[in-house]
Design a protein that fits this description.
The chain is built from 7 helices and 8 strands. It is of the alpha+beta class. Strand 3 and strand 4 form a beta hairpin. Helix 2 crosses helix 4. The model has no long low-confidence stretch (mean pLDDT 92).
Length: 172
């Protein structure tokens, strides 16, 4: 590891040792980021929305190759060394780290749910139904409806995680 902070973070997250050759990503910038967010927010909610999992899920035997993904013109790859500077590179968020660092700064976890659950709890079906009353041209209506449905697909964007963390809202 390039820094002793990496094995410390992983050792805290997993109960058993990882097998030889296990690959995974550790973001050490969560700590300062959540500190900046907490300093900027006096009262309200921090909503973190992204692909990710708890540390236990990220550093499990089902993810022995990590979560690193590269995207180039809608093509998925796991090799960050091709098309250097021309492809997007991403990895899953460790929501356990976001939660634990938030607690250190007075931001308590309220819920960690899927984007599908989050949007459905906000009344997504009512928003989709409201499109009917907008008198949109048929192609625009269907394009908007399909875009909204994409946000809640269980095998796609609906699988994003949403972490809600209130700060300064003891009696909300």
């Amino acid at each position: 590891p390039s820094t002793p902070e990496i094995p410390r973070r992983v050792d805290e997250a997993v109960e058993a040792s990882l097998p030889e050759g296990f690959r995974g990503e550790v973001c050490l910038l969560i700590d300062p980021w959540i500190g900046q967010v907490a300093a900027a927010l006096r009262r309200g909610f921090v909503l973190t929305v992204d692909y990710g999992d708890t540390a236990r899920g990220l550093y499990s035997l089902r993810r022995t190759k990590g979560t690193l993904q590269c995207y180039y013109r809608h093509t998925v790859s796991a090799d960050p060394y091709v098309r250097v500077g021309r492809q997007d590179i991403t990895a899953h968020v460790d929501f356990t780290s976001v939660i634990e660092e938030g607690k250190k700064h007075g931001i308590e976890p309220l819920a960690l749910i899927t984007q599908r659950e989050f949007l459905n709890n906000l009344g997504m079906s009512a928003f989709i139904e409201a499109l009917r009353s907008k008198n949109l041209p048929q192609t625009e209506y269907y394009a908007n409806r399909m875009a909204m449905q994409e946000l809640v697909k269980p095998d796609g964007l609906g699988n994003f995680k949403v972490l809600a963390q209130p700060k300064g809202l003891d009696n909300w």
